[in-house]
Amino acid sequence: METVADALVSTLREFGARYVFGVSGANIEHIHDSLYRLGQNRLNSVLCKTETGAAFMADGYARQTGSIGVCCATSGGGAVNLAVGVAEARASGVPVLALVGCPPKSLQGRGAFQQAEGGGNQVDGEKMWRSVAKRVSVLKVEDFWPNLRSTLIAMLSGHPGPAVLLIPRDTMEEFVPPCPAGKLHRFCAQIRESVHSTYPVPLMPSAMFRSAWLEAKRPVVIAGAGIANSAQLTEWAEREQVPVATTLEAPSAFPQTNSQFLGMVGVAGHPTCHDYIERSDCILALGTSLDIMARAPIESAAREKPVCIVHTNLQALPDWSRLVAIEECPKRWLAQDFLSTDGDSSRLRDWPEPRPFERSVVRETERTDASGLGNTQAVEAMQSHLHAFDIVMMDAGNCAATAAHHLRFPAGVHSQITLGMGGMGYAVCAGIGAQLARHDQRTLVLCGDGAMLTTGMELHTAIELGLPILWVIFNDSQHGMCTTRQRKLFDGRIHATRYSQVDFVTMVSGLAGDNQIWLARADSQAAVSRRLQEYLQIEPRVPGMLELEISTEEVPPFFPFMSAESPKRERQVVERTLA
């Protein structure tokens, strides 16, 4: 017979999980002991520096594999820290499984250390988790197998999301009944079959939208993260002669080198893309619910057009008069070929090449050095080196907006900006999970100094594992997006967004031994290119960090800030978009 901890680890191993990201503690140590004994080099522990970082890594891993990411934490502060990353997974629809150790049942309600049963002065842990996860349950011996089955099915069915298993310490030592399927591999196969059986029969779009699409002369597809990197979409768009725009969350969801690529839509999108969508006569959105970050620049133009959204998440849709919404996996839906025109040659092929905004420098600030390095110059220097990377993770903020706006990602590169909760520091950690998911490739992480200060100690995790990840830190000693808003919305009163200079090269050098990580600085566009070339020539591959000394402050290519409307109207757009 197996204990709860052993049975859980063995099942996750057979289900295909490869890593459990976490920080140990008294009430989770049975899980780590089971991993040590039963992982079989197929399911391994990754010791993180923070529980938040662990959840972010599990999230990054899950996004790259399309399967579950697993993280764990002990009770009390560890569990609360883990909740930050689980909340991001919930907001972005990522199947992360959080294993949370709890005080033993025998002490619950009797003053256990870190107890969280609610009432009096106690945190109600279960209620907290229910507010951030798709499914939460307390793991018990008597319903171990059906509970675990239901948990995994819930995570992967419909719109994916995180699940939390609360496991009392003494429960981990109790013995579970035999696996009901006889063999673990059979039990796991049944779960996968159940996930697929939950998909509904794909629905045909309304007759009104289908007619509008088939008759359209300038139809447009907007591809979101839910259909990213789909060869099926690429083939269909080429056959149907329809241009495809992507969103900020997944800029390269559609190959940017493809002739059908229209550009990126949204708050950091291309003006040429927005202009074309305004002239379009029908819009099909796949894998995106067109939230405000995607639709802000096209809201007024799209409001009266026929629009169909196909996505697994239909919450908080735009209030448009001709909108049709279908709750479905966009890849499965597209395979039904509901909108095929057999390549109607009457459609106009007049979409433009994506064109970015002109670089806009804030010259009135004492921090601006006209000859120094700015965000746009930095990302332009990266363009010729992007082909060497397979994954590009961008942390939300000015550097991400600039990178997504100006870079053209080569074919096959997976790019991502996480906008679910949009917190600083996600990409610093998630890049580690992503790299472990695709271990034979390279990952590039672009982030600001604020993100690095938030979760930068997780570089130690990558150093220990020897992962070929390059972090590029845009260091301008401020929270740049916040500073820009203060200039725009608060008459230039800059407050609580700037801090003293941090030397990240020195800081990170203390995390590694000799030759364990490559470290460098760059203060000009030419230096950025030289340093990248230097890093890419290192063999064997090692982690790296390039600190960019940003001395030119720019207005980011963020739609509300680049608007040509009146200051009053611009302020209203900014406030609505950022609300």
UniProtKB/TrEMBL annotation:
Thiamine pyrophosphate enzyme TPP-binding domain sequence ranges: 395-536
Gene3D superfamilies: 3.40.50.970, TPP-binding domain
Highest taxon listed in the record's lineage: Bacteria
GO biological process, one term: L-valine biosynthetic process
GO-annotated molecular function: acetolactate synthase activity; flavin adenine dinucleotide binding; magnesium ion binding; thiamine pyrophosphate binding
Claim: Cytoplasm is one of the keywords in the record: no
Keywords from the named record: Thiamine pyrophosphate
CDD domains, per the entry: TPP_enzymes, TPP_PYR_POX_like
Gene Ontology cellular component terms for the protein in this record: acetolactate synthase complex
Keyword DNA-binding: no
Entry similarity comment: Belongs to the TPP enzyme family.
Protein name from the UniProt record: Thiamine pyrophosphate-binding protein
